[in-house]
Amino acid sequence: MTAAPTRDELRDHLLTHRIAGAVATPREDNLRKYAMFAERDPYHLFGLEPERVWTQGDVIKLMADRAGVSADPKFRAGQDHIDVDLTLDGLDRFADRLGVARERRQRVLVATGHPSTLLAVHLAFATGLREAGCEVIEAGAGWSYQASAQVGRKRRSIAYFGGVGVTAEGGSLVHTHSARPIRAALASLAGDGEPLPDLVVADHGWCGGAGQTGIDAIGFADSNDPALFIGEAEGMVQVAVPLDDGIAPRHYTPMSRYVLARAGLSGAL
Question: How does pLDDT run across 56-101, given as a tens digit for each residue?
Fold first, then answer.
């Protein structure tokens, strides 16, 4: 495996490729999504059921603290940011939890709702955990559901690639915020009398839905997706790492190497 970057080297890389820092997500989109979360729009809850009432102003303040976006509620349009040091701190906590899984050889479920960009990242983690002796489980494979009432719309199903759970529609992997796949995966384990995972490594609804059940859940989230950060604040999500989740997959490789090295895991990167 190529040598992992130092924290300072990774900071430069994250800023250069806008994984953190001046990210592409505009302030207008952030505010729109914060309002939808405050309204408890199911698509933006990621399977979580917040304990307290969150106003848009509350969400702005929390996202300023946890992701580094502007805390000014009067800032309505333009370039917003993710604080790169909050990203690095989150990656350290994320890696440390992977290290616990390695030390204890835990059962881990790895999945992504953002396969076009983050599948390779999760593949690296699944490979490293498996090689360290963890059981990387593939629960609920083949389970399907109708995601839309639209005529002719294909059913979506759970599939696994290299130990990473994804949602597929026909022959395509799809982006989803839904927690239905992780709920079905956990239900399949319970139905078969198998233990639940000790850890879920994921994003979007895969992460939030797991955290809501009380399973240790760690994941990545963009600045316009406040659910996992609020889940972390309320104690339902262990780690939410702020980053732009829509970057070309190759640019995440140094980040994956950094996490693997800190966690004491090997990988094929």
Answer: 999 999 999 999 999 999 999 999 999 999 999 999 999 999 999 9
Question: Mapping DSSP to helix (H, G, I), strand (E, B) and coil, where does residue 128 land?
Answer: helix
The model carries a pTM of 0.96
Q: How many domains does the chain divide into?
A: 1
Concatenating the DSSP letter of every residue in 24-66 gives: S-BHHHHHHHHHHHHTT-GGGTTT---SS---HHHHHHHHHHH
Query: Angle formed by the axes of helices 253-263 and 7-16, to 10°?
Result: 160
Backbone angles phi, psi at 36, to 5 degrees: -65, -35
In a domain, 97, yes or no: yes
Helix and strand numbers (H, E) in the chain are 9, 9
Strand 107-111, strand 164-169: pairing: parallel
In a domain, 1, yes or no: no
The whole-chain average pLDDT of the chain stands at 96
Tell me whether residue 2 is in a domain. no
- 127-150 burial, b at 16+ Cβ within 10 Å, e below that, comes to bbbbebebebbbbbeebbeebeee
CATH of the domain at 123: 3.40.50.10490
Q: What is the span of the domain harbouring residue 61?
A: 7-263
- Residue pointed to by tokens 């990210």: 23
* Cross-strand partners of 157: 144, 168
Residue 54: name the closest of 73, 33, 40, 74 by CA: 40
Model pLDDT for residues 18-60, shown as the tens digit of each residue: 999 999 999 999 999 999 999 999 999 999 999 999 999 999 9
- The SS3 of residue 68 is coil
* Range list of β-strands (E), 112-243: 135-136, 144-145, 156-161, 164-169, 172-173, 199-203, 216-221, 239-242
